[in-house]
Task: inverse folding
């Protein structure tokens, strides 16, 4: 097996492209999860505040 810098470059760039696409996909998935979590937090907040006010002692 001879040294083949051009073949190596092609393999590397192909791997790099695949890695880049994977990172982009991961980032998209993370963004979706963050958005879902934010929606859940926004939805939960009023109920939690009501519960907290029930437990707080009147001033």
Result:
């Amino acid at each position: 097996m001879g040294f083949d810098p051009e073949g190596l470059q092609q393999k590397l760039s192909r791997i790099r492209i695949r890695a880049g696409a994977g990172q982009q996909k991961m980032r998209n998935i993370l963004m979706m999860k963050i958005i879902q979590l934010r929606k859940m937090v926004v939805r939960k907040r009023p109920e939690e505040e009501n519960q907290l006010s029930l437990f707080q002692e009147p001033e």
Summary: Residues 16 and 22 are 10 Å apart (CA to CA). The chain has one helix and no strands.
